Amino acid sequence: MRQFVLRRLALMVPTLFLAVTAVFILVRIIPGDAVTLLLDSSQYSKQDADAIREQLGINDSIPVQYEKFLKQVVTGDFGVSIWSGQDVMDTLLKDRLPITLELTFFATLFGILLGVPAGIVAALRQDSLWDYVVRTIGIGGLSVPGFWLATMVLVLPAFWWGWTLPIGYKTFAEDASKHVQQILVPALVMSVALAAVLMRMTRSMMLEVLRQDFVRTARAKGLAGRVVIVRHCLRNAMLPLVSIVGVQVAVLLAGTVIYETVFTLPGVGSYLYEGVARRDYPVVQGVTVMLTVGVIFLNLIIDVSYPIIDPRVRV
Amino acid sequence: MSGTPNYWQRRSLSRRTFLYGTGVATAGLVTAVACGGGDDASPATSTAPAGAGTTAASPTPLPTTAAAKIGGTLKLIWNTPDAQLDPHATTEHFAPELYRASSHGLMKQAAVTEKPEPDLATKWEKPDPLTLVFHLDPRAKWHNVAPVNGRAVTADDVVYSLKRISTPGPAAPRASSFSLIESYTATDKNTVQIKLKQPFVPILVPLSDKWTVIVAPEVVEKYGDLKRGDSIVGCGPFICQNADSSTGATLVRNPDYWGDKPYLDKVVYTTIKDAEARIAAFKSGQADVSDIVPDLLINQFKADNVQIYEFDQVGVGISLIGGPNDRAPLNDEKVRRAINLVIDRNIIGQAAFPGSKQKIAGLFGNPTWGIPEADVAKLPGYGPKTTDAEIKEAKDLIAAAGVNGVEIVCNTTKAYNQYHIDRAEALVPMLDRIGIKLKLNVMEFAAMKDAETKKTLQFTAATYAAYGDPHTPLNNSFSSTGTRNYWAFQDKTYDDMVTKESQEEDPQKRLQLIIDMQKYLLKGTPVSSDMWYQKVPIAVLKKVKNFQGTLTAGASASGWYLSKIWIDA
Fold it and tell me: Residue B55: pLDDT band by 50, 70, 90 thresholds?
């Protein structure tokens, strides 16, 4: 196990290197820079613009910028935002990341709590009304665009009952009631697609496992139905579910760009969106590298969890 | 920073088509955010001082009605986060909004005409075309907070601030607006003298716009810059309690304010980026003032406790259709004229703003500076409907140019707003009628800006924001050296007109020159224009009294006038 983890950690180095290099290149391939945007409505000369680029350090050659960037990756210090002058990592870790993590955590939790039991019910009552209802809702959850659902959740109650989520983000310490609403409702909306995916996968896996000989044996030896399902069926169906949750958490993180905008949450997603729109290289690089590292570690954790969930993997 | 949303960018009609398509009963999901209004004020009143004389200050009287009440909180929504809060280092809108409520400028601008008005300077003189002398209000003092601790505002503070704004660099993107100023001098404690390098009448506009606020040197020294909320220290009627460039701000009444004290206890700004979420915030009573309301949806906003205001469009933004004149096929004037002839501006207007009451304008849809409506109708291509004769003439021009069937790539961007794409889409069948195949290339905003700046575009349908005075768009977008002259338009006669207009002291004569310039451009057709005179509806809770509209954002009253608003709760 230890060797396995060490091997995976070693593999992370080239993965991370490729990922951050891709980030560096992609940020610079997209046309336009902060100075073009800063001066857009002004009357200025090319010399004026270049002088500002020089002062901001975005006129350096690409190799020089890349060297600086690699140092930043190693030290974890991505400098300050071109626009706000605020330390990127400081802003990320203190202000933005907690919101996104909280949102993603609850979205994942809701997805699991809704999707897995629904999938089990659908499998146990295959081809019943319950099965059809659950599968229909599941298809709906996959089909409905998340941003549309989010908009409906915000707007319809406002028109029908004069109510919508509290505006102006509050931390839990500032206003617990508002904070809970501001996080849990978006998380619930975010979880819909995940729940649908998990429901379908759980149903499919459960149906497969339920037809296995060891399940029949377990039942034949008189184990209670709940024990058979939870201890024998579900545990065997878990492995692909865990893999899917791992992938879906990365998808959820990417989705925060949209959800944080719609629900006006000042998290990592909106920070990244603003950084890209303003061509704020330190912000974009800092956020993407941090997310990349996060997703790589998440996958490592999932890989490590396989043998725990299913001891046969160790063999 | 026009990556940052200005009036045009904020006019977002996001997801409209999709939401309509779903048949959701709440058609109120559409939103458009835009500029405030303007009125039909006489052009003669624009760009004070009148002539070369003296313009005395006339303090804006507070409402005399007995109904005016002290207290209450005004809840405003703001639609776009700023990158930071230094008003001198931005062309975004939130920072100056806050500073104009919590501090003052040398001058300010009228709510709807954008006419320069007294602010810290109670009067000013222009002893000669190169000299401006401003007399400051001797009562003015800074907030009673560290490090200024209520000290008097001095001419040195004004000079410091103006130099800070006009020193080129990353912290002063508007420095070019002040490039014709030779010197700033504090001649005594309350007098500032500005010397120009050459006569330049529109100089009062950058001196009075909302970004030109006065800051105290010791505040800059203390914080290093003014980018964060805790560095907002001013001399205005409100004190900034907290502010964040991306989430909002809270202002409270300044108990030691030296001028007419504000009525409101508190003003709370909440930034909401999503247009539908802003509508929901207003409908749920969490905001007292709405975004700009799309005309088709006004009924959704009507309620017993809501007043719908309609403001004239202000600003001197321009909306253009065309491309560089130095490459095929637009290098042939016949092609440009043909395009101009077949653009049906009414159809485009309705595609962009469904249901709105609009009249076709020339270059500016601004009642103060635009070509009079009767004259607009006489321009080729500006009639109420494209006629068969115009189509035939356009076809003949295309045939003569030998470009029938040519494909043109039209850049447009969603970041401005959906309105631009709607407009570009409406163009496709119009140009198809004369054998031009228009292919749309929807770009990300900064990428489109890059293409414009590098002049790598072939054709565009875009809008360019400008405020206060038409000199900026007329110069930047069309003069030979204009930064926004993406059309490669080089015309000595026109350049001379720009110079003459910028030096004309008589407001009436200057207005006539500006109208002549617009006609010259539209006749020569370096690029086509589509603009409308239209009303901008804003929903306001009736309890909000003395609402005066806004210059920059339909989502809130301008910081200049917050002290005049009261709540009748």
Answer: very low
Three-state secondary structure call for residue B176: helix
Would the CB atoms of A40 and B174 count as touching at under 8 Å?
no
Phi-psi region of A76 (alpha: psi -120 to 50; beta: other; left: phi over 0): left
pLDDT tens digit string along B376-429? 999 999 999 999 999 999 999 999 999 999 999 999 987 766 688 999 999 999
* H, E, C per residue of chain A: CHHHHHHHHHHHHHHHHHHHHHHHHHHHHCCCCHHHHHCCCCCCCHHHHHHHHHHHCCCCCHHHHHHHHHHHHHHCCCCECCCCCCEHHHHHHHHHHHHHHHHHHHHHHHHHHHHHHHHHHHHHCCCCHHHHHHHHHHHHHHHCCHHHHHHHHHHHHHHHHCCCCCCCCCCCCCCHHHHHHHHHHHHHHHHHHHHHHHHHHHHHHHHHHHCCHHHHHHHHCCCCHHHHHHHHHHHHHHHHHHHHHHHHHHHHHHHHHHHHHHCCCCCHHHHHHHHHHCCCHHHHHHHHHHHHHHHHHHHHHHHHHHHHHCHHHHC
Question: Taking CB atoms and an 8 Å cutoff, what residues of chain A touch B555?
Answer: none
Q: How far is CA B430 from CA A296, B238, B347, B387, in A?
A: 52, 52, 10, 12
pLDDT band at B10 (very low <50, low <70, confident <90, very high): very low
Residues in contact with B562: Cβ distance below 8 Å, sequence separation at least 6, in sequence order: B74, B101, B237, B238, B251, B262, B264, B267
A174: exposed, middle or buried (Cβ count in 10 Å: 0-12, 13-18, 19+): exposed
Q: How far apart are CA B269 and CA B286, in angstroms?
A: 11
Residues 6+ apart with CB under 8 A from B160: B215, B217
Determine, for residues B449 and A36 on separate chains, whether the beta-carbon distance falls below 8 Å.
yes
ipTM surpasses cut 0.90: no
Tell me the whole-structure pTM to 2 decimals. Answer: 0.86
Neighbours of A196 (CB within 10 A): 25
Q: Is residue A59 within 8 angstroms of chain B, CB to CB? A: no
The one-letter amino acid at B382: Y
CA distance B384 to chain A (A): 32
d(CA B520, CA B533): 20
Dihedrals phi, psi of B321, to nearest 5 degrees: -135, 115
- Please say whether the beta carbons of B285 and B489 come within 8 A: no
Residue A6: predicted pLDDT: 87
DSSP notation for B219-276: HHHHHSSS-SGGG---SSSEEEEEEETTTEEEEEE-TT-SSSPPS-SEEEEEE---HH
Optimal mutation site among A30, A36, A59, A167, interface B, most CBs of chain B within 10 A: A167
The Cα A162–Cα A94 span in angstroms is 34
Give, in degrees to the nearest 5, the angle at Cα B166 between B161 and B168. 130
Instruction: List, for residues A179-206, the tens digit of each pLDDT value.
Output: 999 999 999 999 999 999 999 999 999 9
Least confident of B55-59, B428-432, B436-440, B487-491: B55-59
Chain B touched by A39 (CB under 8 Å) = yes
Q: Which amino acid is at B373?
A: E
CB A157 within 8 A of CB A197: no
Distance CA B514, CA B512 (A): 5
Considering only CB atoms, B91 lies closest to which of A41, A147, A158, namely A41
Closest CA–CA distance from residue B486 to any residue of chain A (Å): 12
SS3 B485: coil
What does the DSSP assignment read for B531-568?
EEEEEEEEEEETTEES----SS-TTS--GGGGGG-EE-
Cis peptide before B127 (omega within 30 of 0): no
Whether A270 has its CB under 8 Å from any CB of chain B: the answer is: yes
